[in-house]
Amino acid sequence: MHQYVERRHGVVLDEELFGDRIVRFLYSQAREKAPFLFRLATSARISSLLGWCNFDLHLGPHLLGNAGFLRRCGVDLTECMEPAAYFTTPRRIFERRIRYWQCRPMPADPRAVISPADARVIIGSLAADSALFLKDKFFEYEELLGAGEGRWLSAFAEGDYAVFRLTPDKYHYNHTPVAGRVVDHYLLDGVYHSCNPGAVVAMITPYSKNRRIVTIIDTDVEGGTGVGLVAMIEVVAMMIGDIVQCYSDTGYDWPQRVRPGMFVAKGQPKSLYRPGSSTDILLFQKGRVCFADDLVEKARRSDVTSRFSIGFGQPLVEVEVRVRSLLAVAINERREKQ
C-alpha cells in the first residue's frame, strides 16, 4: 500500500500504483537474478515501445464515453480545450491541454514560487541544519546536476528542493515555477528507471541516473520572482518517450524551445512529457525560500502509510498539489509579513 495526502482537506488517500506488480518484479527479482532483462527494461528503446503499447493503441468508440476509465484517471474533460470526441487514445488524454488560466489559479504574490505540475510533492533540504534535511534519498546531488557543472553545484549547495511525481493520469504539461531569465539549459543522458515509490526506494537516488533536462533560471532580475537562482530538472521515467520543450507566453500559442537568454514568465507552459509517469525537481539556493506551512506540516505526518517513510526510515509523505498552486515564498517576504 502507498498513501498520500490531499492538500486542500488533508485527507489521506490510497494510491493505486500503475503497473505495480511488474515494477516490483523488475526491481527485485529481475534486477538481482536477470540483470540483462533489467537493463533492457530501463533502456530508451524498450521504454518507448512500452509507451506506444500503453498509450497509442487506438481504442476508438470503446474509449469515448467510457466514464469508468476517465473516472479512474481522475480526468475532468470540462477543463480541456479539446472536445470529448477528440480523446480517442490514452495518449491524447494524457497529453491534454487545459484552460489553466481558469481552472488552475495562481497566487497574486509576485514573490511566490508555484508548483510546476499537477503532481505529488515531497519537500526536503540538503542542509544538515534544516528540519527538512534529506540527503541522498531521491538523488545524488552532484550527479543530478552533472559532475562537470561546478558553478551550479556550488550555487545550490545546502539548498532546498522539492520532488514532484507525476502519475500517468495527470496533466502532463510542466509550467514555469518562477519568473526570470534562463541562464543555462542542458541535457544529461541516462536510463529510464520507474518513478514508482517502490522502485525509488529499491534503487536509491534513481532521479540522478535517469535522462533529464536541466534549466537554470535567474529570478533576481527585473520582473523576476526574486528568490535567487532556481534549477528546474525534468526527469524521464519508464514509458516516457520524450520531454518536449514548448514554452508559451500566452495559452499554448506559439511554443518555442527554451534557450539561455530568454525571459520566462511564471505559471506558463514550459514543456510536455510524453505519457507515463515522470518527475520534476526544483532546487533553490540556501536561505532564499520558505516552503508553504501546510506542505511542511503534511509532509511529516506519521499517520500515513508511505513507501518512502517505510523505505527510508523517517516520515516522508507526498502531498498532492495542483499546477500553479503555492509552493513557497521568498524568505525576505516572509520576514516582512511576520
Can you describe this structure?
With 338 residues, the protein is α+β, with helices and mostly antiparallel strands. The protein has one domain (3-337). The chain is 26% helix and 23% strand. The chain has twelve helices and 16 strands. The chain has helices at 20-33, 35-41, 44-55, 67-73, 90-94, 100-103, 141-145, 150-155, 197-203, 293-299, 307-312, 331-337, and strands spanning 3-6, 12-14, 112-114, 119-125, 160-166, 173-175, 180-188, 212-218, 229-235, 243-245, 263-264, 269-273, 278-284, 289-291, 319-321, 326-330. The strands form three sheets. A ten-stranded mixed sheet has the order 2-1-15-4-5-13-9-8-7-11, with helices on one face. A hairpin with a 5-residue loop joins strand 1 (3-6) and strand 2 (12-14). The radius of gyration is 19 Å and the shape is globular. Mean pLDDT is 83; it is low at 29-34 and 59-67.
SSE arrangement:
Blueprint: E1 3-6, E2 12-14, H1 20-33, H2 35-41, H3 44-55, H4 67-73, H5 90-94, H6 100-103, E3 112-114, E4 119-125, H7 141-145, H8 150-155, E5 160-166, E6 173-175, E7 180-188, H9 197-203, E8 212-218, E9 229-235, E10 243-245, E11 263-264, E12 269-273, E13 278-284, E14 289-291, H10 293-299, H11 307-312, E15 319-321, E16 326-330, H12 331-337
Helix pairs in contact: 1-2, 1-9
